[in-house]
Amino acid sequence: MFIIFRFSSRKKRSAKMLSTLGKSATRLASSKKAAVESSSFVMNLFRGKSVTEQVFPYPLRLDAERKETLGMVMGPLEKMLQDVNNVTKNDETSDIPKAVLDQFAELGTFGVLVPPELEGSGFNNSQLARVAEIVGAYDLGFGVVMGAHQSIGYKGILIEGTEAQKQKYLPDLATGRKFAAFALTEPTTGSDASSVRSRAVLSDDGKHYVLNGGKIWISNGGFADVFTVFAQTPIKQADGSTKDKMSAFIVERAFGGITSGPQEKKMGIKGSNTTEVHFENVKIPVENLLGKEGEGFKVAMNILNNGRFGIPAACTGAMKHCIQKTVDHVTTRVQFGKKISEFGNVQEKLIDMVAKCYATESIVYMLSANMDAGIKEYQLEAAIGKVFASENAWNVCDDAIQLHGGMGFMRETGLERVLRDLRIFRIFEGANDVLRLFIALTGAQHAGKHLAQQASSGVGGMLGLAMARVTGGPATGSNFDSVVDSSLKDSANLLDGQIKLFGQTVQNLLIKHKKGIIDRQYELVRVANSAIDIYSSISVLSRATYAIKNKSTSADFERDVANYYITKALRNSQLSLEQAGKGVENATTVSTIESLAKQIYSNGGSPLQHPVEL
Amino acid sequence: MFVFLSPSLSLFSSFFLCLINIKMRILVGVKRVVDYAVKIRVKPDKTGVITEGVQHSMNPFDEIALEEAVKLKEKKLATEVVAFSFGGPKSAEVLRTALAKGADKAIHVTVSDAEAAKAEPLHVAQALQKIVEQEKFDAVFVGKQAIDDDASQTAPLLAGLLDWPQALYASKVEDGGAGSLKVTREIDGGLDTIKVKLPAVLSADLRLNEPRYATLPNIMKAKKKPLKAIAAKELGIDLTPQTSVLEVAEPAQRKAGGFVADVSELIAKLKEKGLVKA
């Protein structure tokens, strides 16, 4: 009765719409049909299990040498961001001068993860996160130049490239002698990454691919020397026919046939260069194929997953900047005869900002540390980090502006620029809405396979499932009693309850909708929201426990922030799960939404009559 | 490799050396201090300031001294720049920063953290003296003062101990010819230009130069440069303090001011406080 849903099957419409998600989800759960065990906390969350080996103890471990090297470069980096880079001017002129980029290149900020043998700085992800945080606090536009270059631009060469490709390209790229860009997006290819139309066809002599096509909104597109380009290539199938499949290429501007459009006019991150890039009969040597032919989608997803944590890191820095400005303002601004910092509503807003920042930071370094530890399965955690951080940063900046009153709206204060800069973070590198569906569907698929396996294991398995439903689900298997500090026990208990409810809710949805779950966006989004609340809560729980155990000077503060945050987040989670679980009510709401939307579309706009009837 | 200047050189060779300028080995003293951007907090027992869990960095004036030495090396006026630090185990960090900023070697004269907290400029000067005597330097550069204790004594004490000329508060350093340096000093009312014969002790003032940044590639390269540690005791330095700290206290908090409507109210208030005569 339980069906493993596969996205590529009958439902053509949704299958096409969600082909990106489906392919990544299918790939994640491995090609085998059998259910696989996972060590990822979020993956197991979908089965109502609390698997905390990647979460407790807080995994951040920078050895003394890495810490010292990081400490040595942080000061110079901050000074250069203050003295050499001019964020206001970058925003006004929509440019970051090459001379400025050159100075940062000298500092080593363009080759942070590249090994020293290839002229890089040899940092790990946790060190890079700290660097990205500092950059994010000063200039998000500059952060995008940096990220487009190394987090995605040449990341493919670093993680998927052959030894020869690394030797050839990384030294120039790590030192900023050359710049890189990531070229995936096309006019008809947004969130649905596999639908690119650019094509690369092998030449008759088999020595070159000839690339034609156009890319849009390419960060660093105007000046990059090396592009990671995704294009369709005709692949011979087993039955002799050919089929277009996406492949990835390293393309040099020097190959010829590449033109860049003018700098786009954007809402924010104006200092970063964004252009169209066109390829006309570009001859790419076959050795510049990145990864295997036809596996470009996998390469793209690996790059994006691997680079994704840079966004939460930069957003954390931006939040800290907003919080500091707000503290400075509210503790000096006097209204109604007292400093506005004394008003309860101001305090509540500030503490919410601080709690959101704390939770985001906790996720950033948990994620980076797990990546540094060699853990490969962090796609869901990375996706949650990106969604969570970009939305928190937006809200924190918005609150900072609100607490500044009219001053916040003025350019001079600098917060309006941060808000404009932050807006794109909810859209690019995986739109948050699509990432929510990715999180919910990937997790649900994992849970679905296990459910199917259990159900197919005979009467006993069926009975177990039925029993579990009657008794409110099996225990989560959490070990919170032994790993969480006792002062956070109440929060841990709340969390355990939510993990259990989450597993039950997902199971019920799977039983009810089977593979039709793919179309239940109303429920999926709420499931994803709850997953975000739960994962951020457990990150906070782990981080605060770590601080208390290590007698951090801010341990008491962290304990209180943690309890405050978790209580609030899990209240939201409870609400999301309740909404997701209400079958009958949801059916009514969803059909109302559908019907209203249809009326608007068929009318070509809102059909509302104006109250003055004019 | 360095050219050692000695009075026994023939007239010809000293003339020749004048043409190719001086060739110095420079020892630069760098101190690990609480970072200038950190808000200093006094310990509850008033015996000092809180240093645990606080960002530390190289004393900014020492950074300037180091930069000048490295620049002289780049101008081929110096052959080798050796960084020196006297302090607890973590002083090695500022030495590695110095190596990343261009020093060739580093010498760490080690003491315990407890001893470092009580060390005085004389102890540091004595350690510098021992190192100079052991390794034959032609000049010692230090910052004019450290931003933690503001003592400003290490350079003059060292000049005294070595019986070398001193050029303190340098704001410009040039080749003075014939084995000397021409040093400009900012003094009240103008500039003072002096010529000091090498070997000499020099202390760096704020406007001498703008120190370079330690870049990541150089930080990585610096890991391979030699850093030698010697215990202060091995050098035979008596660390007995000559002063004792009675109390460290926060500056008095400024009281908030008030607004006055006009000049007459201002005068009335000032009279009230006895700040102007009635």
UniProtKB/TrEMBL annotation, chain A:
GO biological process: fatty acid metabolic process
Start and end residues of each Acyl-CoA oxidase/dehydrogenase middle domain: 181-282
Positions of the ACAD9/ACADV-like C-terminal domain: 487-605
Pathway the protein takes part in: Lipid metabolism; mitochondrial fatty acid beta-oxidation
Annotated ranges, domain Acyl-CoA dehydrogenase/oxidase N-terminal: 86-176
Entry superkingdom: Eukaryota
Membrane topology: Peripheral membrane protein
Keyword Lipid metabolism included in the entry's annotation: yes
Cofactor(s) demanded: FAD
Any Gene Ontology CC annotation: mitochondrial inner membrane
Broad class of where this protein is predominantly found: mitochondrion
GO terms assigned for molecular function: fatty-acyl-CoA binding; flavin adenine dinucleotide binding; very-long-chain fatty acyl-CoA dehydrogenase activity
Domain Acyl-CoA dehydrogenase/oxidase C-terminal as annotated: residue spans: 294-440
Subunit structure: Homodimer. Homodimerizes after import into the mitochondrion.
Role, per record: Very long-chain specific acyl-CoA dehydrogenase is one of the acyl-CoA dehydrogenases that catalyze the first step of mitochondrial fatty acid beta-oxidation, an aerobic process breaking down fatty acids into acetyl-CoA and allowing the production of energy from fats.
PANTHER family (UniProt xref): ACYL-COA DEHYDROGENASE, VERY LONG-CHAIN SPECIFIC ACYL-COA DEHYDROGENASE, MITOCHONDRIAL
Family: Belongs to the acyl-CoA dehydrogenase family.
The protein's name in its UniProt record: Very long-chain specific acyl-CoA dehydrogenase, mitochondrial
Organism in which the protein naturally occurs: Caenorhabditis angaria
TrEMBL record, chain B:
Highest taxon of the lineage: Eukaryota
Family matches, as SMART domains: ETF
Domain Electron transfer flavoprotein alpha/beta-subunit N-terminal: residue ranges: 46-239
Keyword check for Mitochondrion: yes
InterPro entries: ETF_a/b_N, ETF_b, ETF_beta_N, Rossmann-like_a/b/a_fold
Localization (cell): Mitochondrion matrix
Pfam families (alphabetical): ETF
Gene3D superfamilies xref list: HUPs
Function description: The electron transfer flavoprotein serves as a specific electron acceptor for several dehydrogenases, including five acyl-CoA dehydrogenases, glutaryl-CoA and sarcosine dehydrogenase. It transfers the electrons to the main mitochondrial respiratory chain via ETF-ubiquinone oxidoreductase (ETF dehydrogenase). Heterodimeric electron transfer flavoprotein that accepts electrons from several mitochondrial dehydrogenases, including acyl-CoA dehydrogenases, glutaryl-CoA and sarcosine dehydrogenase. It transfers the electrons to the main mitochondrial respiratory chain via ETF-ubiquinone oxidoreductase. Required for normal mitochondrial fatty acid oxidation and normal amino acid metabolism. ETFB binds an AMP molecule that probably has a purely structural role.
Name this protein carries in UniProt: Electron transfer flavoprotein subunit beta
